[in-house]
Amino acid sequence: MDRDQPRSPARRHLLAGAAGLAAAAALPSGGQAQAQAQAQPPAPAEAPLLIPFEGVHQAGIATPQPYAGLVAAFDLLVESRGELRELFALLTDRARFLTQGGRPPELDPRFPPADSGILGPEIKPERLTVTVSVGASFFDERFGLGRLCPPELVAMPDFPNDALEAERCHGDLLLQLCAETPEETLHALRDIIKHTPDTLSLRWKQEGFASTHGQRRSKPIGAGRNLLGFKDGTANPDIADAAEMARIVWCDGPGWMAGGSYQVVRLIRNYVERWDRTPLGEQQAIFGRQRDSGAPLGRSDEFDDPAYADDPGGARIPLDAHIRLANPDGRRGLASPLIRRAFNYSNGATLSGQLDMGLLFICYQNSLRDGFVAVQQRLNGEPLEEYIKPFGGGYFFALPGVQGPDAILGDTLLREAGISALPTQKEG
Amino acid sequence: MSDFRFLSRALPAALLIAGALLAGPLAAKVAPGDLVAPIADYKIWVTQETQALRDKTQGFVDAIKAGDLARAKALYAPARVHYERIEPIAELFSDLDKSIDVRADDFEKKEADPAFSGFHRLEYGLFAKNSTEGLGPIADRLIADIRELEGRIKTLTVPPEKVVGGAAALIEEVAKTKISGEEDRYSRTDLWDFHANVEGARKIHELLRPLTTREAPKLVKRIDANFAKVDKLLESYAAPGGGFVSYEKVTQKHRNAMRGPVNALAEDLSKLRGTLGLD
């Protein structure tokens, strides 16, 4: 791998395009937090097209959710700590180029082209983010990083309703790619795979799409819907609230982990045929919301407090309703210290001739125990389980952000591990 | 013969930018005549391999027709390897390639399809059904196809871009179906084919070495290093009497480990045509 090549030509092209220019001009310097504050939902139509790559945190976490999402898990093929560092440097370069845009080099046509071309000759990102995280297996004996494993990071366990498929679970490294169009996320994936033939081996991948209902309209109408037809994410904390994000999402240590976040990915199939044959009243009791308005049962608006104090016996909202178990307090963000960034997925047909569709669930938190695990433990045994089946995913840790043009992904980790800050010169 | 164009002068700068994807700077040029000798040598090698394919397949076919199941099973993989080595040339004849080397996946009715023929149809009978029964006509057709192939190759003007591009094509075969164990699913002799594809690619790489070393020495070094990695992995599965152990014995860890050097070879070998200025 060449480390002495010029950095990607992206920066020269950073301001290419009027939209990019306007967006960039509107951004105060100093990072993602402010950029995100300006781009807070529910008005993504006005958010800038370029999401800054550098920042205390990686983009793609407390960032407004665009339409297309893709996660791809990889096994590492690198064998030494030096190669590991080179891989992170390469991923940093690719992510910077892909998210900030530019023109891939034009080569002699007798060579394979440098770029897949699926976005045309010029890469003009539309809210593309590349978010890199690592799994528990990253910290096994191979690189001697065991002592630096985030204290709560383990391989995702089997919850009671899960039917995990080994080939759709876990991984040393996970890429979360999000953008306004699916071809942008696929372009980014193919670019990264082409650059890492001998360092990353694809393990599993899942594409998803955000509900457009309510997300991409000029007049926002609340949270999007899952493929069961219900509003999903109403209780999500406000990602533009930096103090709230610091309380819920960002780790402040120990050591290298500061600025990172625990990530949970769950592939959850929905049995939609059966769901569509279930009485509406029962569906609403299972979720605890009215399907059409999204309002808690017995209330009138999506964002109304479910007021559980008035309903201790569950006469209005059953005690085992999904929203009540997930968030027993009822108020936005109070009982579930995590942010959700879920996408819907649709994968074709099963051997039984049923639709394989459901949820590509993604969430971030600074404690797995207090965040996802606490929520999932409350949800275990919920009536909704009859209609859903988690089959894949994993626990990961999203690395801290890249701060400055010479920084690379994972450099706080590598430094703490004593892995040379100087790139090893390698031929080629 | 194609006309050989010289590499563009603009190339080195572009190469630097493309970085990890590409070879080192290209200063010299490959003259049209430079490829004559390696292509001629390749044709000789392919001819020898085709003769070996015919002879070994004849023995394989004879064993099937004699009803000697054990002998037929033992001769399956050693005959096939000669086909797998010359695939870039054999594939130029798509009608024969289909009837010689098609897999059941290519038919909607899979193994039950009456058009399923060739090596894998015989493999299915011998290893999955454990019998030579009814295989006689299929065996006859296979040897007839291979004699036809031999005749066609004899009169073939070998297209240089197919030879140079063939190295990458062989490794793409490995990446696509050999690592996953889809190739020889009844006999589990996948590693024989895996190795034969690698040998076929290496032969091309070796014949072109004087030219590629001159044009892109770092690329050649990387290719050599990845061939060596593949060899090392394959060696650990060599069978005592020659050939390789069943693919079932290859650990998932090693299957994954093979992806690295194989994918890197596929990327690097895909640059040979450009490096030598071939369209």
Tell me the layout of helices and strands.
The complex is a heterodimer of chains A (428) and B (279).
Chain A: H1 18-25, H2 32-38, E1 68-76, H3 81-100, E2 129-135, E3 173-179, H4 182-195, E4 200-209, H5 242-248, E5 261-270, H6 272-276, H7 280-287, H8 322-326, E6 339-340, E7 343-349, E8 355-365, H9 369-379, E9 388-398, H10 411-416
Antiparallel strand pairs in A: 1-3, 1-4, 2-3, 2-9, 5-8, 5-9, 6-8, 7-8
Helix pairs in contact in A: 3-4
Chain B: H1 11-18, H2 36-65, H3 69-85, H4 87-90, H5 94-101, H6 118-128, H7 136-154, H8 160-178, H9 190-215, H10 217-235, H11 252-269, H12 272-275
Largest beta-sheet characterization of chain A: 9 strands, antiparallel
Overall form of chain B: globular
Low-confidence stretches of chain A: 1-44, 215-220, 424-428
Task: State the order of secondary-structure elements of chain A, H for helix, E for strand.
Answer: HHEHEEHEHEHHHEEEHEH
Number of alpha- plus pi-helical segments of chain A: 10
Percentage of residues assigned to helices of chain B: 55-70%
- Classify the fold: give the CATH topology of chain B: A middle domain of Talin 1
> What oligomeric state do the depicted chains represent?
heterodimer
Q: Would you state the CATH class of chain B?
A: Mainly Alpha
Proportion of helical residues of chain A: 10-25%
- Which architecture of chain B would the CATH scheme give at its second level? Up-down Bundle
Residue share in β-strands of chain B: under 5%
Record field, number of beta strands of chain A: 9
Structural class of chain B: mainly alpha
| Major sheet characteristics of chain B | none
Describe this structure in words.
The complex is a heterodimer of chains A (428) and B (279). Chain A is 21% helix and 17% strand. Chain A is an alpha+beta fold and 428 residues long. Chain B is mostly helical and 279 residues long. Chain B has a single domain (16-275), classed as M75 peptidase, HXXE motif (A middle domain of Talin 1, Up-down Bundle), CATH 1.20.1420.20. In chain B, 66% of the residues lie in helices and 0% in strands. The longest helix of chain B has 30 residues, at 36-65. Chain B has helices at residues 11-18, 36-65, 69-85, 87-90, 94-101, 118-128, 136-154, 160-178, 190-215, 217-235, 252-269, 272-275. Classes of the chains: A alpha+beta (428), B mainly alpha (279). Chain A binds chain B through residues 1-2, 5-6, 9, 75, 77, 90, 105-108, 110-112, 114, 194-195, 197-199, 201, 427-428, and chain B through 5, 7-8, 10-11, 14-24, 218-219, 221-222, 226, 256-257, 259-261, 263-264, 266-267, 270-271, 273-275, 277-279.
